[in-house]
Design brief:
alpha+beta, 6 helices, VC0467-like, 9-stranded mixed beta sheet
């Protein structure tokens, strides 16, 4: 399997190699929001759930924002990536125009005031996490392809074909990979 020349940093995408066996990450695109000496953390962008955020969080003002399975770690937690920036105290800038977390009570107030559109925020149940050195090892084993930052892949209308779409932006050799069947024995 081939790898890209990009290095993992916050804001970049991890694209699973085409034949990854781990069902949590098969054909997944993970947005890294944190990467450093203490490990890495991200959210799977193409595992949208068939529920609304109002089914997950009681007493949240109505908002038709998507909810995703962010990863296999701590699936009892809720996280969010948004474009609200400084409107939420404690939000962390991933890169320009993309933020992670922040004060949830302030988020509820912003929703009540009509300052949050459904396309401004994504919610995640659980997250994807790597201990120090773990992601480096997985990259060396070519389990992941790193793709550059692109907010157009984060805040979009559909996430169904995202794995293939992100790969295609990396050039011809990745365009070929994007067409690999899930099970080559069935080809």
């Amino acid at each position: 399997m081939i790898t890209s020349s990009y290095q993992p940093v916050a804001g970049r995408f991890l694209i699973s190699e085409p034949f990854m066996h781990d069902l949590n990450f098969r054909r997944s695109v993970v947005l890294l929001v944190e990467h450093g000496d203490k490990g890495s953390l991200g959210f799977v962008l193409n595992r949208q759930l068939d529920i609304t955020i109002n089914e997950v969080v009681e007493n949240l003002p109505p908002l038709s924002a998507p909810v995703f399975m962010g990863g296999p770690v701590e699936q009892s937690t809720l996280h969010y990536v948004h474009r609200l920036g400084e409107q939420l105290t404690g939000s962390r800038k991933v890169y320009e125009g993309v933020y992670w977390g922040g004060n949830f009570e302030e988020l509820k107030e912003q929703i009540i005031l009509g300052r949050v559109a459904p396309g401004d925020i994504l919610f995640f149940i659980g997250y994807s996490g790597w201990s120090p050195g773990q992601l480096k090892d997985e990259l060396e084993r070519k389990s992941w392809i790193v793709a550059p930052e692109d907010p157009n892949f984060i805040f979009r209308d559909t996430y169904d074909d995202m794995w293939r779409s992100v790969l295609k932006t990396l050039g011809d050799k990745y365009r070929i990979i994007s067409n690999y069947p899930v099970d080559p024995r069935l080809n």
